[in-house]
## 1
Amino acid sequence: MKQDTDFIITLATRNEGKRRELERWLHQRHSPIRLALNESVGEIEETGSTFVENALIKAQATPPVVPGGWVLAEDSGLVVDALEGLYGLSPFPGLKSNRWLTPALRDTLLAQAYPNRMPLDRMTDGGVSNTDLCYGILTLLGQNANRSAQYCCGMVLWNPADGVAIKTMESVALWVIEGEPRGTHGFGYDPIMLLRDDRGEPSQHTIAELSADQKNQISHRGKAFQAILAALANQTSQ
Ligand code: IMP
């Protein structure tokens, strides 16, 4: 018989936005799985060269809160096609989505383009705000007609007890807006991202203008979580 603790997965993240999204995703599907944080884990250095490698590093550095339990980790980011290779990053900003914009670069890049930019919001690990990251991308793209981008997510479910790792990599096609960031939901680059339909046409609303449930239907993280849970169900039914 299954114990309650069989359904507790330890989540290896310090990012509130990601935790909220994954919990809501489970809630919407009436899933018995619960996510728990291991508060004792500090900053984990992301030294991998892919999203999946970084997710595995985070998972393996996080002991499960339930003995014998699974640990879920993800590494995600933005890829802007027209900025490929910029500042030595390929893809750009890719693995450095949260850290490519230093305070010094922010000041040079944005001072002229946006002297009256919106007040700073939550700081990223690198000491600049998410709003600044959005304006940074808008400034670098300028009038470039190629505004194609993707959100990518590498996700790993790791069981330290038996050394099993289930891995997946998912992405979502996007289009970077022209003009000012719009919307207050989501996090990170959501205020400047439009979804694209099957024909590649951008949507009207930015992802930050969608409700949390709408974002969860389409998110790269949701897609990855779905693939991981399907593989887990497959594995445990064998
Ligand atoms: P990390 O995975 O914690 O290294 O950080 C990934 C960074 O990529 C975030 O801090 C955001 O800047 C960006 N990012 C990843 N997923 C999303 C998303 O769903 N919306 C907006 N930005 C995202």
## 2
Amino acid sequence: MRIDIITVEPDLLRSPFENSMMKRAIEKGLAEVHFHNLREYGHGNYRQIDDYQFGGGAGMVLMIEPIARCIEKLQAERTYDEIIYTTPDAQTLNQATTNHLSLKENIIILTGHYKGVDQRVRDKYITKEISIGDYVLTGGELAAAVICDAVIRLIPGVLGDETSALTDSFQDNLLSPPVYTRPSDYEGMKVPEILLSGNFPKIEEWRTEKAYERTKQIRPDLLDE
Ligand code: ADE
């Protein structure tokens, strides 16, 4: 999978891709990530990329021309399956969307900034708009990193243990059950007996029951879906 990220803050984005699982995926050749500094597509001495909004109001808006130049340059090189825009005024990211995106070959992610982008960018180029939650970040860069992390870990071969992504929270609309490791008794706090029993069908039953309990208590809305 190739991901091209168009951003005004490329340096803010680098670290998540240089560490841990995303680094491993890139090193294994399973994911390729390229950053494009929008500023380089701005015109004039100041490489202008934003301007005041028509109709008045606080906050700058990213202009269509620099974004169009960058997207169209990329599109001339290859076909993109999705062009994503990160913004709080969109549907919230969920596991179904990350599963869907993990099957794609080429993706562009345009990260919002300031007051956002000119609506015409969204109308002309964007195929999917994603929010990572009902709160406002300074820019969409961290949202792009979150989306990439959630998607890249699902690409076959990225995770060492192939089954571990399948048993993540949300894969079946349930939160994960509690997990324990040694010691089996910490200052009188004991690990549930069943997990030490070696009876794997019973352990699976217990985990499913706990997953339902936890979901019902913390995220009952998931059970309605
Ligand atoms: N940009 C600013 N806030 C955001 C959010 N919650 N999700 C995605 N992009 C954003």
